[in-house]
Specification:
By secondary structure, the protein is of the alpha+beta class. The chain is built from two helices and six strands. Strands 2-3-1-4 form a four-stranded antiparallel beta sheet, with no helix packed on it. A two-stranded antiparallel sheet has the order 5-6. A hairpin with a 3-residue loop joins β2 and β3. The longest helix is centred in the last third of the chain and has 6 residues. The protein is globular and about 25 Å long.
């Protein structure tokens, strides 16, 4: 599986909303998750998503789409 990365953001843009490789999580802060490859399109500093977060939020990467049971996309 491709590596997932995240960054804290202040707001969600239309570009983020329309990008199937982006998952926005609002949990005491606003975070954007995406693949390492896709992160180059965003001007943010990204860190690797911890395994514990992948498990806790049930984050999945399937067919290039990042999703979560707890924070569904559209």
């Amino acid at each position: 599986m491709e590596r997932l990365v995240y960054t804290e953001i202040e707001s969600v843009t239309e570009e983020m909303r329309n990008d199937k490789r982006v998952l926005v999580i609002s949990d005491n802060a606003l975070f954007m998750l995406t693949t390492k490859t896709n992160s180059k399109w965003y001007n943010h500093y990204f860190e690797t998503v911890p395994v514990e977060a992948v498990e806790a939020y049930e984050i999945q990467l399937k067919d290039g789409k990042v999703s979560s049971v707890w924070f569904p996309n559209k």
